[in-house]
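FORM 7B: Structural annotation worksheet

SECTION A. Query
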Amino acid sequence: MKGNFAEIIASGTPVLVDFYADWCQPCKMQSPILAEVAREMNGRIRVIKIDVDKNPAIAARYQVQGVPTLALFRDGQLVWQQSGVTPAHTLKQVIGSVLAK
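SECTION B. Predicted structure
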């Protein structure tokens, strides 16, 4: 992640945050799903990755208990969060509902 986390999530574009760890096997399964969703959303959302081992304060602020955890922010506000590998169709539904507002 490049830049200030608070500034990134406060941007006008919804931001999907992937809280992950390099040692986490399910996190490695989540990565291609996120890439697919980002491609299909075609710039309507931004996807960033936060390594919980390198950024423990951010992970703690959002009460990340396990990885992977995905969190969706809109205008700096947390609007959705889920732990575990999340399928593409679920992500698309959640993002679609946030974009529709």
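SECTION C. Observations
The chain has a mean pLDDT of 94. DSSP finds four helices and four strands in the chain.

SECTION D. Sign-off
Analyst initials: ____
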